[in-house]
Design a protein that fits this description.
single chain; 163 residues; mainly alpha; 7 helices; globular
Length: 163
């Protein structure tokens, strides 16, 4: 993603993943994000790890299938936090790394992102970063840089269901 965007955009990476549990998993992933930040020179802003809010929003949705309503609630929560940060910082355009995953519905993520951004007076850069070899490149860079590669989306329901 950064390779694709850096030539045209000034980038700040926003880390907001209260869905990632347990805390050890969160820390593994955040450490990899910090390595990416160091390697690319892209600053990373870490927002609150508000797990309790995530659980409240997803209450009653833990049995939903991967890619269903629970995932949409999670995407929306994380994009809302990013949009609030961007609006407060005077950033006009946001996007998300979520579409790099072959397991995520880029069309739906981009719809949510566009709606959330508009509500905050922002523009959403709707991309499908897995396309044009994007996912493969992310795997290559992960190996080259020694990054931790997760085996599930981050939430405990996804871990149990293989998401």
């Amino acid at each position: 993603m950064i390779e694709r965007l850096a030539s045209e955009w000034d980038i700040d990476a926003i880390w907001h993943n209260p869905n990632i549990q347990p805390i050890e998993e969160y820390e593994h992933r955040l450490e990899s994000m910090r390595i990416v930040s160091e390697r690319t020179g892209i600053p990373v802003v870490v927002l609150d790890y508000d797990v309790e809010d995530w659980w409240k929003l997803c209450e009653g949705l833990m049995e939903e299938p991967e890619g269903g309503v629970r995932c949409e609630v999670c995407f929306r929560m994380r994009l809302e936090a990013t949009a609030r940060w961007a609006a407060a910082e005077g950033v006009e355009v946001i996007t998300t790394t979520l579409t790099i995953s072959p397991h995520k519905d880029a069309k739906r993520i981009n719809e949510i992102g566009t709606e959330v951004a508009a509500r905050h007076g922002l523009r959403f850069l709707a991309m499908d970063f897995k396309k044009e070899g994007g996912f493969q490149r992310s795997v290559e860079l992960s190996r080259e840089w020694g990054l931790y590669r997760q085996t599930y989306c981050g939430c405990l329901a996804g871990k149990a269901g293989g998401g």
